[in-house]
Amino acid sequence: MTATATRPPDAAPPATGGKRAPKRERQGAAWVFLSPWVLGAAVLTLLPMAVSLYLSFTDYDMFDAPRWIGFRNYTQMFTEDPRYWRSVITTLTYVVIAVPLQLLLALAVAIALKSVKRGKGFYRSAFYAPSLLGASMSIALVWRAIFNDGGSVDNLLSGMGIDIGGWINKPGWAILSVALLTIWQFGAPMVIFLAGLQQIPAELYEAAAVDGASWWRQFRSITIPMLSPVLFFNLVLQMIQAFQVFTPAFAVSAGKGGPADSTLVYTLYLYDRGFTASHMGYASAMAWALLLAIGVVTAVLFRTSRAWVFYANDNNEGAR
Amino acid sequence: MTTAPTTAPAARRRPTGRIVLHICLIAVLLVMLYPLAWLLATSFKPADEVIASLKLLPSHFEWGNYSTALDGVNEVSVGRLLWNSLLIACGAVLGNVISCSLAAYAFARLRFRMRGPLFAFMIATIMLPHHAILIPQYIIFNQLGMVNTYWPMILPKFLATDAFFVFLIVQFMRGLPRELEEAARIDGCGPFRSFFSVILPLTRPALITTAIFTFIWTWNDFFTQLIYLFEPEKFTLTLALRSFVDASSQSAFGPMFAMSVFALLPIVLFFLAFQRFLVEGMASSGLKG
């Protein structure tokens, strides 16, 4: 679905030069190299997509044959299931908080690091480390403990006179602790930003400095436009990942999505419906709604990107 | 941080600005490292100090947490859990390195019909939410009798389903000079010889990046293992930590975080050993369309 609805970041196929090779043989060789991927794409991607679409119109519990019920799952989801909407709102809240803050922090630190001479490699690696560790259950458990009632974050805040009293037990605060875990992992987009910053020609800044442009002016007129493709790449990637958050919400709420469903993110509810309650048809409908939602969001991002993403090799308009 | 000069000349002019910058960076870093320090400290704390004490360092080191953790969970020893985790991670690494490099070579260097659309499809699957295919995949593996085995974690990797890595390797291979293969062809190499003898050795950095990322991501993966594995004997370290999730008793905190240290240790070691590949691999994934 997303395949046709959106333009992928790198839709242009790589160029090949191999001219005048014995054509038949080269074609055959290519398919041999591709065969594992073709098999995987067909059997583990395309076929499951079709099957999950079919199952979304059925009542299926893994034991009895699927029973066709038309749009029943979807109407139930959208009109009769308050927990479904709860999970949608929870996920959107989390995405809207976590993704912009994570990218902002990543950009700020990347810009700071750009001008650092000594210890750059150390900083880069140190800031990146949480991106690898943070996806683990171990760190999710740490989060649960330090944001719990009497945990160190709670103690620190009440020491400063802010008494929240255990984020993970308070609806509204619990999802914020999950968002903080995501923001904490800003290292991956930061590294990509930093690499992007280093590709901006220094002459641009030199010319601007000669013209007397302030730091802010240079940032707005050079850094942001030149960095916009990387910014866009990070935005799309982090957004898609954020919609699928699971492990920290599972850990913080002991798999239940509590308190009061405040950490019941979309995938946690999907897991609950499909694998705990054995409503595979309903879970499939949820999966397709997610697929469509991500497709729509990505398509909107790509559409709006024409207004603000600037590709240096296209032409010069928009480079102001 | 907003006052950080963007241009190198500006930084050279103001040494105080540079010091302020370093202080800011280190402050951010210290805040970020706190959860990791807390994890390590707590794994050594006696039960009564875990929550009550504000101090990071334990009054005395409680090695008992580690010996409790070594006993494992649900009568399964840590050694066994570690072995299970390793088996899955290494199987996944082998699968990804082989299958993704094969597919990447075709996309990056060979000419075939439908290459454009297939490449676009491959890229699009990077964005496909895993959940859209999860349930039918589960049904397929269930039909094949592979639920509660490691195959659902390993088999897809041999079929290049991690499009992200195919893309990463394609990007890298496209940077290699085309003359290499032309020279090889003149010397009589077909596409297979030039793949194995010319291109693959030169692609080593991208393959190492793929291997390390696959290892770490598979090691950390919770969702897939949660769905496919139910017998404690088959559990991985990550999954074993789950049984601590349900138990909220604070007396188990020390052993739980000792176990967490076991689960994080391989990632930390991998990170320390290969940080250059990891950081650069991540950086190059976002660049050069």
The counted number of beta strands of chain B is: 0
**What is the gyration radius of chain A calculated from CA atoms?**
24 Å
Mean pLDDT metric of chain B? 86
Q: What is the CATH superfamily label of chain B?
A: MetI-like
CATH architecture of chain B: Orthogonal Bundle
Annotation field: number of helices of chain A: 14
Shape of chain A: globular
Any idea what the shape of chain B is?
Answer: globular
Low-confidence stretches of chain B: 1-11
Task: Please state the CA-atom Rg of chain B, rounded to the nearest Å.
Answer: 24 Å
Biggest sheet of chain A, in brief?
A: 2 strands, antiparallel
CATH topology heading of the domain at 82-256 in chain A: MetI-like fold
Brief rundown of the structure:
The complex is a heterodimer of chains A (320) and B (289). Chain A has 320 residues and is mostly helical.
Q: Can you put this structure into words, describing what you see?
A:
- The complex is a heterodimer of chains A (320) and B (289).
- Chain A is mostly helical.
- Chain A has 14 helices and two strands.
- Chain B is mainly α and 289 residues long.
- Chain B has one domain: MetI-like fold, CATH 1.10.3720.10.
- The longest helix of chain B is centred in the C-terminal third of the chain and has 33 residues.
